[in-house]
C-alpha cells in the first residue's frame, strides 16, 4: 500500500498534535497558584497519617459527604498514597478514592500534584501548617479548591476562625467554604 506525500504529511502532523495533547495531559502541568507560598521545611513523614476535613469548598467529587478523612502514606519511591474517605448520608454508604501524589520539585516544599484518575493531576499545596503538624490548610491548583484539615475531628472555635481568617487573607472566598460534619 502506498501513501501520497500529502497523506503522509497530514498523518505526521496529526501524530505530532496527538503526541502533544497526550504529553500535556500526561504531565498535567500543575503549578502553585500565583501569590501563594507552600510551606517550606516540609517533612512528609510527619504529614503522613490521618487528617480530618473540617471545612472545604465543595466540588462534585465530595458533594454532600460528611465524616471525610484523608490517609497519607509515604511510598519507597517518594510518592504519597492518598486515601480519601467520606460518608454519603443520602445513599447511606461510605465512599472512598485512592490516589497518588508527587512533589512538584523539592520534597521540602509542600507543593504536590495528586491524581485519582490516571494521568490527570490536580494541585495540592499545603499553604499553612502548624509546627506540631496538627492543622493544615490546603489549596489546590486554584483558589477554587480549599480544604482545612486537622488531626482531630474538632478544634477550638477560636482556632477554627483564625484559620479561616488566614484563608481569607490568601484569597479564599469564605462564602463558598462549607463546614464538614465530623
Structure, explained:
The structure is a single chain. This protein is α+β, with helices and mostly antiparallel strands and 182 residues long. 22% of the residues lie in helices and 37% in strands. It has 3 helices and 9 strands, in the order ααββββββββαβ. Strands 1-2-3-4-5-6-7-8 form an 8-stranded antiparallel β-barrel. A hairpin with a 2-residue loop joins β5 and β6. The protein is globular and about 40 Å long. It starts with a helix and ends with a strand. Residues 5-27 have low confidence and may be disordered.
List keywords for this structure.
single chain; 182 residues; alpha+beta; 22% helix
Rg over CA atoms: 20 Å
Task: For the largest sheet, list the strands in their spatial order.
Answer: 1-2-3-4-5-6-7-8
Largest sheet: 8 strands, antiparallel, barrel
Structural class: alpha+beta
Approximate strand percentage = 35-45%
**What is the 3D form?**
globular
